[in-house]
Amino acid sequence: MTKNFSNPRILRRFIVLMCLATVVMFSLWAVVKMVKEDVPGDYEVRQGDIFLQDKLFVKALNSFDQALKNQPDHRGALGGKAVALIGLRRYKDAEDVLSYLIEFLSRTLAADDPTGKGALSAAYANRGIIKDRQARYEEALADYISSINIDADIADGPSWVDRLLYHDKKPSSVITRAEYIYKQLKLPKTERLLSIPEVDATQRMYKP
Fold first, then answer.
1. Count of domains for the chain
2. Of 55, 73, 76, 203, which has the highest C-beta tally within 10 A?
């Protein structure tokens, strides 16, 4: 055996095989670890998020519904389902899901849960956007303010990663929209301009 390893070709082959075996075993370990640590429904939520990025809203909705079958009240699935429904212009259904999510999180959210805090802020922001699109401006402003008070980072708009992915130089945000609505509502009704379709269309849904 020692004699064989004195051959450079055999030694090189052995090293390559050991490296490959290490990679394979590490990959298997990572997969097993991920499966063991995953909360039921997490995998379907990740799939749904991918579909949302590609604007495949029906497929995303199916993924989030499956996640909710595996884990009822999965907050990521509820938030994602609402975004998919908004993408399909099913605003009433989306608002119902968001109202349920807001109630659920308000009742169960722990003080030291920043992810849940972001989910609650995003739920208020998205519900505000629905009301905004339906010309329910006072209600939209109330939801936007709730979103800002809970998590200003979410309300401040998409991150630089989102801007890079979606090529938005100046994406709309909850804060800028809330400020605009507030100022317009202070004006006499005849002077208000609360909807500018080409600007409103740039407002993206939120999913932490």
1. 1
2. 76
Q: Are 141 and 128 in contact (CB under 8 A)?
A: yes
pLDDT higher at 74 or 153: 74
CB 20 within 8 A of CB 27: no
Q: Is residue 131 part of a domain?
A: yes
Asked if pLDDT for residue 18 goes beyond 60, the answer is yes
Two structure tokens written together for 38: 């995953």
Measured over the CA atoms of residue 77, residue 81, residue 119 and residue 96, the dihedral's sign is negative
- Of the chain, the end-to-end C-alpha distance in Å amounts to 57
The answer to whether position 26 is within a domain reads no
Residue 88: give its domain's CATH number: 1.25.40.10
58-79 confidence digits (pLDDT tens): 999 999 999 999 999 999 999 9
The alpha carbon of 81 is separated from its chain's Cα centroid by a whole number of angstroms, namely: 10
Location of structure tokens 């609505």? 181
19 in a structural domain: no
